[in-house]
């Protein structure tokens, strides 16, 4: 089997870029032939003209379609696996696959199929106004903070949905959580075309012992939807709990200005530093204010053997299973978060038990072997249903 992996890398490397790289590595390690068709947003000049061009190419790129057609003729893949298409590829590459008769699977890493900006979160709150074909709200609410950008995002989403640019050529959508699968089905996607394939995370050879941990840990982008301000408010109310915040982002200066003495900012960490941070923690905190589609850092923390305190949002509910692998609290409720942090901090034995359960779950559900099995099963199914996979035009 030969698989063509397709992705538009982000200007700032994030979880989707890591999943793309890991997918290639894991498939090749399993003996699967992999080729790639990729673009990188970092290649775009930071100019108004370049942004305008990228917005146009994001709607429909004839150049990307021609390049994809040539790649299909040259590589002759059995299946195409798509990740992110914006802004340099666009749904035009899906049309090229459809024309060539090559089956396509697409990972839904976020809510881009129902929300122009991909998060269903804007202006400090979860938002579902665009769901169900009402993309105009992206412009009306100025979700991008720029009227021109908001209009462009709304337009490309509206055109893609009205013309079925995603649904028609994609044989299978891979939802990274059951929560996201259920959401796509409510948006009109056929249940038979949506399969849950969670992200994979590395499972360390040795688990940490959270009972010996000396702080509560948060890791992620310091932006509004991550709820770090809620964690800081909880830290004020639970001064006996040392808190470490790993990551960077636009809100860091403001968050540092309101943080109590028991909070320490670690900044952006490399892979080794982050692993060390997990190993030194007693539990992980994920206070997100938006409906997390998966929660990669949550899964990583669990893989290390940490229990997780998370907001009751999105996929957190299935990952944590309240009381089994951690605890859930109502998003935005800093009082409830402080109480949960205090209780868990004072019960290291409970941390050890829940951490062990979290690690077992992560190993069973998010290990690389399980990820490989799930992908291959989907690839084989869609290629079996294709009349003549890998043909060229």
Which CATH class of the largest domain?
Alpha Beta
Number of domain units: 2
Strand content: 15-25%
CATH architecture field of the largest domain: 3-Layer(aba) Sandwich
- Uncertain runs are 388-393
What count of helical segments does DSSP give?
15
CATH topology of the largest domain: Rossmann fold
Head-to-tail CA distance between termini: 20 Å
Report on this model:
With about 400 residues, the chain is α/β, with parallel strands linked by helices. Helices cover about 45% and strands about 15% of the residues. The chain folds into two domains: about 1-115 and about 165-200 and about 370-385, Glycogen Phosphorylase B (Rossmann fold, 3-Layer(aba) Sandwich), CATH 3.40.50; about 210-365, Rossmann fold, CATH 3.40.50. Strands 2-1-3-4-7-8 form a six-stranded parallel sheet, with helices on both faces. The chain has a six-stranded parallel sheet with strand order 11-10-9-12-13-14, with helices on both faces. It has a two-stranded antiparallel sheet with strand order 5-6. Helix 3 (about 60-75) packs parallel to helix 4 (about 90-100) and helix 8 packs across helix 13. The model is unreliable at about 390-393 (pLDDT under 50).
């Amino acid at each position: 089997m030969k698989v063509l992996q397709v992705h538009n890398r982000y200007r700032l490397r994030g979880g989707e870029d890591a999943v793309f790289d890991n997918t290639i590595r894991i498939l090749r390690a399993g003996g699967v032939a992999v080729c790639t068709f990729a673009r990188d947003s970092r290649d775009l000049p930071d100019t108004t003209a370049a942004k305008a061009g990228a917005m146009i190419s994001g709607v429909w790129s004839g150049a990307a379609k021609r390049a994809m057609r040539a790649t299909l003729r040259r590589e002759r893949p059995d299946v195409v696996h798509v990740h992110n298409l914006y802004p340099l590829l666009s749904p035009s590459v899906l049309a090229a696959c459809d024309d060539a008769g090559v089956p396509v699977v697409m990972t839904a890493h976020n809510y881009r199929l129902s929300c122009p900006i991909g998060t269903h979160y804007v202006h400090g709150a979860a938002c579902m106004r665009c769901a169900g074909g009402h993309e105009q709200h992206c412009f009306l609410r100025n979700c991008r903070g720029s009227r021109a950008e908001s209009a462009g995002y709304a337009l490309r989403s509206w055109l893609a949905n009205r013309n079925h640019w995603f649904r028609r050529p994609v044989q299978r959508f891979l939802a990274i959580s059951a929560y996201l699968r259920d959401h796509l089905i409510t948006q009109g996607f056929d249940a038979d075309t949506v399969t849950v394939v969670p992200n994979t995370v590395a499972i360390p050879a040795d688990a940490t012992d959270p009972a010996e941990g000396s702080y509560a840990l948060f890791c992620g982008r310091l932006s509004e939807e991550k709820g770090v301000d809620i964690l800081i408010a909880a830290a004020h109310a639970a001064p006996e709990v040392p808190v470490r915040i790993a990551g960077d982002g636009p809100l860091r200066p403001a968050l540092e200005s309101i943080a109590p003495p028991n909070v320490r900012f670690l900044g952006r960490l490399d892979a080794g530093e982050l692993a060390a941070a997990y190993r030194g923690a007693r539990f992980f905190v994920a206070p997100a204010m938006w409906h997390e589609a998966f929660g990669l850092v949550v899964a990583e923390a669990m893989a290390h053997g940490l229990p997780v305190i998370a907001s009751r949002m999105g996929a957190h509910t299935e990952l944590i299973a309240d009381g089994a692998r951690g605890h859930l609290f109502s998003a935005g409720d800093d009082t409830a978060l402080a109480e949960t942090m205090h209780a868990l901090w004072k019960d290291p034995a409970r941390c050890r038990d829940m951490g062990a359960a979290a690690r077992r779950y992560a190993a069973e559900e998010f290990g690389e072997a399980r990820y490989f099995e799930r992908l291959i099963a989907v690839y084989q199914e869609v290629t079996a249903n294709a009349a003549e996979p890998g043909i060229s035009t």
